[in-house]
Specification:
Six copies of one chain form a homohexamer.
Chain A lengths: L2 H20 L8 H7 L17 H7 L4 H5 L11 E3 L2 E2 L6 E12 L2 H13 L7 H5 L6 E6 L12 H10 L4 E8 L2 H5 L5 E6 L7 E6 L3 E3 L2 E3 L4 E4 L3 E5 L4 H24 L4 H4 L6 H20 L1
Parallel strand pairs in A: 3-4, 4-5, 5-6
Antiparallel strand pairs in A: 1-11, 2-6, 3-7, 3-10, 8-9, 10-11
Helix pairs in contact in A: 9-11
């Protein structure tokens, strides 16, 4: 069996597995609930209801920065979608993909034993980080709430990091917690945002939810959000706003282009050109430039 | 109508209200789920399934300290039930009661509007801190996950603090977040544990769960846990371990009593008496004392 | 000479001294500038132009809390007038008075020598904390920017603290820096807000301004602001808003009074009464109560 | 046997025990070394060479504050004898006594087993906190380096705290680490300075030295130093400087007395009186007052 | 018009603009004051009085490190001229230039409206970061006091960063605050030192001074100071000490050269060679080497 | 004299010097004590008793990561041998070598003068960092306890760093304190782990021990421990466990090799392969692979 075929098969298997797994978690959203909470999603969905921002938009998003999202979201009432304070594995490599969310909580034996009984009753193995990792799809970013934990809060080491890189086709990882094997991971070409690196293995926690809303710092992340990480931090963009953010970013890029071109001419003070030109002739010049460049970009 | 009657009535009203409210939250446990996860609870339950540690045991717990719980729980596999780092309103006043849990998450407009539509469709008002507070029962401790938020993370000011004090019959409050009106609250005689005090009102958050498992620092708190706060921090004790912890605390109290009595005699080095006496005669003396005192206590 | 007379005399002496001192500082506001920047001040002024909130309003302000100021100022565009994170000397004792501001900067010899040459040329002694302290008036609160400095950032020890208490008639002290002699100071009955206590004397700084705008944390404090400190933190209220804040606080007090009265009746859920009653009859009852009580208060 | 007799006996026993214990520690100072390092000590010594600041000076020291020590020590080249950042059990109760130092280090099994083999070879029990505590004398302050450890860094709980209080005759405790049973300890009348309170028992450390130089924050503490704790922090005063510090403190007290008396007269600006009076007549008045008061004090 | 001409023109325009702008700021130094405070400056001055360390010395300074400045300044009484704790944009690229200082304070509307009225009365636009940036000269380093602010404390994004780079001829930026567009800025080749990166735009502050003394951490920075940033932090060197620091750095470089040459020989312990050779023959060898190399350097 | 000869000579000189130096330190271990505390060392020793992990094992250790040590040591009871939170000079360059330990404490003049008198009486110069550095051997890693000190806690600048690099043959440096000349040091190819960089010279401390047990964060480091630093932090491995750790790391490397090979095939979910394969055929395949590869490695 060649690889593509086998992947297609395993995706199907996972689609079947997902609802079963859900019944062995503490918190779950049914497919119906997930659709209700993300009803404004304009795109297709995965079989479990998770919004699927199209691949083409993911590619376009690689040209954006956090500032360009910031320019749109707060004005739409989304003031809590940005988080920073991470260590960034490869600061020069943009993180873009669809949020696949996982939540852990501190272990307590009574709850843990119920969760594992349910899993066994359904013929599943022990619920752990790998149960979630094995459900990842190409284009996913694994978003993990490990409540900032260092020792024992290590979502993956280099072997599973490698697996995620292969499975998500270099999607990425955001963990409010830690990773281990930083040495090995540093040599791998997938973006990752984490709080700490620590040599311990994941421990003293229980998996309490997959593809439910999770909190990463000051952000409520929904499954299917478009995750965008740059040099500064990570943005979680609701699907219904993705197109608008991207269109606005095009304008910003052109504005930057024109602004620097004018600065290069050396004839102007910054305030004559930026934020926007005061002189009507310059203003006209900019508007013509913007129109022309937008047309060029949209043709592609 | 006199007060007791009216309270009895409103309790009934609330019992009816609870499942309705649940359908307007992001995370919910059905009554069946709550019973399954707390299946080891040896006591009665509230109508919504929440374990109800008896009032008599709550009274006995007022004589315990965090150390006495620590002496039992880790040995039973419960290593994550203690949290500190709080500001304590009245350090000399013990906090004891049943956990009533509430969770907030950072607001995002798409989710928030679904939650409020659901609430309105069911004839409920806006979902907020008061919706939860109005469900409190005598003996409850309000346990709130506001993810450490300061500005806008103020669960109550002095008016609602007063209401909680009246309704819970001086139960108490634990908030991983803040309070406001510290000046007014300082004059009220209910125990409270909080991270900060700030003059802002609660804002920029959405209520996402009532009586679900919540995380307070490094603890997974279940609705119905026995909450115990002393000079140092707060313990969340699973119902199935309450009796055992209390019995062991009796032994510890008697051991302390005897140890200090011997220290007062001034004839011994600390290591001859404490942790346990080495000398067989002293050991016998202690065991007789323990037996006698336990009998006296148990008679009460 | 009796004390009152001598004080009157020394006030005059200080009024004469002030402009002279000003010329030996790095930053100064002329009387004209100070009046221009505080042009909305509705009250009298000190000889140097500093607004003088009347004594009667200072007395009324003793009944207010930070929350009651917060309820008014942000709505007027004043979002940066509150600062917390202080150690509070006497948490139960309200701080109220007129801001007398002092600024220090890290010493550098070239600047320092110029400042002191200027001072000597004018027959003044070395410019230091006492030069400022000797200018304090009854009702003043000394507000000091020592940029959070601990070692060497001690504005006063117990002797000068005692002097301030006597001179300001128990005004108070707010220092973004430290104090020393905490033991001695603890026994004195004047409110104080400080970052640290440290046994060193003030050192390695130079006095750079008296009664100029200073920054205390996130607040720009103007000379003559009404300073209000409670259990939580400190508010700096512009003179033009003092009356409005106080009037609104009266309404809040009455609202609290009525709300708790209703809670005491035990007939209502919190949301039926608070923030405001939903039931028209209750609403009417509250409005009548408010009107009656306001009249009683205003009569005093 | 009455108590005083028995105590005299046990002191002798401990004096014999000390050198034996020393041979089972990682770091030791022989009596000769201790004497050499504290050669400037002008007072008697304990049998093990530790300087013994006389009881009368300890009593005099109860009237001093940290500032009064600071006024002398840095000028003598002792710039690192003060540490703060502690939680203070009873801020109003002065800590005074002779330093009895104990050092712990993180456990490692190879070292720990050597230490315990040595102890067993000499017929001693397991080396632990109680081995040190049982050597305390009246007037001692237990000074413990637990390197700021919280969980497992708890030098004592309430039972051993009680024992120390009885044995040292209310000497005291300074621990760069933590305590447990804060509730029980709060009710006991002995001064204590600690970094944290935590319910765990001491664990994962090994006792590495008794009455050796230890580091508490930025201070090198020698056995026999006079420990002085007030509202702010803790001073460790070398024996050779104790008399000088105390004499200077007498002068400071009289200076404070006179300064406030003059401030009370209300005739002077602070700079006319404090630091020292400029006017020759006032200067003379102060000097006469100082002389008279010093004589009165010295007579006592 | 070619670029050089236009720049010369705009410089003239700015020289005219500067005093006008000054009148619309909260804090100002007149040209006379600035000259007085920097009277020891041995070099030319800008039209506004700011010292102008010559270009040749700026070039020489590119070979220095923070340690070489530290070796001179504290001994001259300048103990507070160094600040660290910054994020460094290009750690391998030395920052050197003349300080152009700007100060912001938290906005308060009463002051802000006065400032803007004054600006409008003089025909100036809104006072903001660009007003200051448009005054920069080749060789300047923009030094900004934004009191450590993160959200809203972003002095520039990538467009204005680009403008500064062009205008100052790769001078540089030091901000006690933040920047935005870190992604775009990372690709630009100008040194920058900042506390945080954040996607927000500058907000909630008011410009209160240009080319006045500002505080950056523990340093008082004067306009015209030579700014030197290396891998560790930033030094602000008063003009009168620049030559001396540079001459001493030459000696240090030669000393390092010789020391490592000797270490490379492998015949000596470090203490035989470093700090200075003990052996008279080695000492002579070093002194001859130093003399010869200094001559070579000075010839250049 | 050629270099190798001279080094041999100076090594002998140092061997003679060591015991003399020891007598001028506050804490010392005699050769006999050091041997006793490290009795499980299976390797040769230096003349002063310090364990000498063979060069061949040091070379093998360059292939290990912190995680591979973590996999062995806690299971042997060594739970406190890892420390992180350092700045890492060259994250891609592994640190490996034998621990040479040095301890400093805050200066106090009485102790310091005794130490220096002793040194002078023995014909030694002032005790300082260079006295220790001159004793380093090829393969050593200098491990320094400077209690986290920043200003004045700089163990070396670039000259002495260069000397250490030459002398230890690129061993390395771990300092719980700081370094200076980060600019110069960055250009040198020796691994270093430090808390801060600061331009000050080492000051206000006294050298209190060489090759004694020291505490680095939460680790007790013994002279002769194998020091291993990677991208995350530093491990201090007792000599008796080195071989076992290395053997286990070989197995881990092969396991990683095989795991990724299988992941590359794209036929498996992560949990079918990792931690260990569930399928008996796969398990057999892995075991054969492991055996074959181990043989290949062991042959080398």
């Amino acid at each position: 069996m060649n690889r593509m075929t086998s992947l297609a098969v395993s995706v199907c298997a996972l689609a079947l597995l997902a609802p079963t797994l859900a019944q062995a978690q503490l918190f779950t959203l049914t497919k119906e609930q997930l659709i209700e909470y993300t009803a404004q999603n304009p795109f297709e969905r995965f079989p479990d209801g998770r919004p699927k921002v199209p691949d083409a938009l993911i590619e376009r998003a690689r040209g954006m920065s956090a500032e360009e999202v910031w320019a749109v979201l707060p004005g739409k009432g989304f003031r809590n979608q940005y988080e920073d304070g991470f260590q960034i594995l490869h600061p020069g490599k943009k993180l873009v993909g669809r949020a696949f969310t996982v939540q852990f909580m501190p272990v307590r034996p009574d709850i843990d034993s119920v969760l594992n009984s349910q899993a066994q009753a359904k013929g599943l193995g022990r619920l752990n980080n790998q149960a979630a990792i094995d459900m990842l799809q190409p284009g996913d970013v694994l978003v993990v709430d490990l409540f900032g934990k260092t020792d024992g809060g290590t979502i993956v080491g280099d072997n599973l990091f490698y697996y995620i890189m292969k499975t998500t086709k270099t999607g990425g990882l955001v963990v409010d917690g830690s990773i281990r094997d930083l040495e090995g991971i540093s040599a791998m070409d997938m973006p990752a945002y984490f709080r700490h690196a620590h040599p311990s293995a994941i421990a003293n926690v229980m998996l309490t939810g997959i593809n439910i809303p999770v909190r990463i710092g000051n952000v409520t992340v929904m499954p299917g959000d478009l995750v965008l990480g740059d040099h500064e931090g990570v943005y979680f963009i609701p699907p219904q706003l993705v197109t608008q953010v991207l269109d606005q970013a095009d304008v910003t890029h052109i504005h930057d282009e024109w602004t620097r071109k004018k600065f290069d001419e050396g004839k102007y003070k910054s305030s004559e050109i930026y934020g926007s030109p005061r002189d009507p002739a310059l203003k006209k010049e900019y508007e013509d430039y913007l129109k022309k460049r937008l047309e060029e970009i949209r043709k592609k």
